[in-house]
Structure formats: C-alpha cells, structure tokens
Design goal:
Layout (H helix, E strand, L loop, with lengths): L1 E4 H7 L6 H11 L2 E4 L4 E3 L4 H13 L3 E5 L5 H12 L5 E6 L7 E6 L5 E6 L1 H8 L2 H4 L2 E5 L2 H7 L5 E6 L5 H12 L2 E9 L10 H9 L6 E9 L5 E10 L7 H4 L2 H28 L9 H5 L3
Helix pairs in contact: 3-4, 8-11
Length: about 300
C-alpha cells in the first residue's frame, strides 16, 4: 500500500483546489466539538474537502455515490468541483437522517467563544452554498440496506464511503457499491484509523489493499477521545488497478449472500430500535454503544 501525506497526494493530481474557500465552507457548516468540558473545537479533517474536490476534478465522474451525508461538507465540495469543471454529473448521497433533520452545529464567535445552533441541511445549505451546487446533489434518506432494496441507482463512477464505521457496515456499503458500479470505478474511504467500534482498517487490510493499487492518504492527527490523538487516514484506489477480475476477488454469490444476511439483520435492528423509541421516547436521542456500533 502506497502512503502519501495529503499534500503529496494533492500534488500527485497536479491540481490546485480552492483550499481556503473549502475551509471556509467547512467552518460555515459547523466545527467539531472535541471536549465537552473545555468547549474545545477543531477543524476536523477539513483537508478531505480538498481531496474530494481534486478527485472529482481529475476523474470527472458522471455519477457519484456518497455513503454518509452528515452536515454535507463532502457532498458540497464534490458539487462545487462538478460545477467549476462543467461536469454533467450528479451526487447521490445517503444518510439515515433526512435533509430536514435538525443537526447541532458548533461555531465560534469573533471573540473565540463557542456556541451551537440547530439547523437542518435543507435550511443551512441554502444560506451558505450556491443553488447550482445544491442542484448537483440528490439526497436519499434511510438505512443503506433498505435503500438498496427499494431504489434503482445509475451506474456509479466514484464513491465516497463514510457512513457506518463498524466492520460489517463498511463491508455492506462496499459490497452494495459493487452491484451498482460501472465496470471501472474509484473509491475513497474515510477514517482509516484504529478506534473503538471502527472496522475500516480491518476491511481494507483484509479485502482491499492486497487486491488493488491502494493509497493511504495521511491527513492529520485527530482526537479519538478527549485526551488521545491518533493519525487519521483515507484510502483511495481505482478498480482498474485490480490484480484480477472483480468477480474473482468478490464472487457474486458471496457478495449477495452477505448483503442479504446483513440487510435482514439491519431490518431487525431498526424495527426493534423504533419500537423501543416509541415506548420510551427520550431514548431516541441516546446512542448506546451497541446501536452506535451497528450504525443505528
């Protein structure tokens, strides 16, 4: 596996992304609160915006699939790249929360004092992003497995995977991508980092890095707890670099068997979580470790 710093990776693409403007966009979407007690915030992995902007500019994909919309930073950076480069494409972005769901966004005032607001993506994006960017984005709401059982997506050229972070969830998202991707496609995984309930590193190490020309992009150190930092990475590869045909690396029967089993399990978990939330309403705002592990 090749290892590059984020600066080296961006230089290898021979592009100059509007980094300063992308950082301002991230600031306007909300900072990451890393210490509840001290009110300390950080510009959490903002460089992924420049990386995504540059990959879209370089690859010029017709259809992009993002797993995990969150506040929308990644989707908006990719949408700006499509707009700036006159790419006739769309970004399909999946999240279990709807675009009208109020999210907590953290900011600092001019004196450096932190404060928070509640604002949905529909409400917030319209205030900070041009309409032509937003029109490039097609939000899809729901749990990933249920979505793929219900809708038909176009052939995908590029995917950004940053939703469920446990091993089975990451594997499910990638395997789901296999069933809708073009013959050759590119993938960027976020959060290649060792931390509790994360399985990205295991999935990459077990199924990706030995089958493709894979690049680890080292971005920066991030907090994995309120006191501990660790190097954060992203994984990028293009399937044209595969060591053998994809159907041999990921046999269709194995892929579909895993997807069917996972989606039955996901349906069981979400139904039972819904019942629990209905019976005890305040629990819907609490992420237990078990639920968090399973992306619910």
């Amino acid at each position: 596996m090749n290892t590059l710093t984020s600066e080296e990776f961006l230089n290898s693409l021979n592009l100059s992304p509007p980094t300063k403007e992308l950082y301002t966009l991230a600031d306007n979407l909300g900072l990451m609160l890393i210490n509840q007690n001290t009110g300390e915030y950080e510009r959490h992995t903002y460089v992924r915006g420049s990386i995504l902007y540059s990959l879209i500019s370089k690859l010029k994909p017709k259809n992009v699939l993002e797993f995990g919309t969150a506040t929308g930073y990644s989707a908006l950076c990719m949408a700006r790249a499509m707009t700036d480069n006159n790419i006739d494409g769309k970004i399909y972005t999946i999240d279990r929360f709807s675009m009208d769901f109020p999210q907590t966004r953290n900011f600092k005032d001019k004196n450096g004092v932190g404060y928070s607001i509640q604002s949905s993506n529909n409400e917030h994006w319209s205030k900070i992003a041009p309409k032509k960017w937003i029109e490039k984005i097609i939000p899809i709401t729901g749990h990933t497995g249920q979505i793929f059982n219900k809708i038909k997506l176009p052939k995908i050229d590029f995917s950004y995977i940053d939703a469920a972070h446990h091993y089975e969830g990451v594997k499910h998202d990638f395997y789901s991508l296999l069933n809708v991707a073009n013959d050759n496609f590119s993938v960027l995984f976020d959060d290649y980092i060792e931390r509790p309930f994360y399985g990205i590193t295991k999935f990459i190490d077990d199924e990706i890095k030995n089958n493709f020309d894979t690049t680890l992009i080292q971005t920066e150190e991030v907090y994995i707890s309120q006191v501990q930092k660790q190097k954060h990475g992203m994984i990028w590869f293009d399937t044209s670099s595969s060591t053998q045909p994809l159907f041999k690396i990921f046999p269709t029967s194995n892929v579909n068997k895993f997807l069917n089993n996972y989606r039955r399990y996901e349906k069981f978990i979400t139904i039972n979580r819904y019942k629990l939330n209905t019976q005890i309403p305040f629990l819907k705002n609490i992420k237990f470790k078990f639920w968090k592990k399973n992306g619910s």
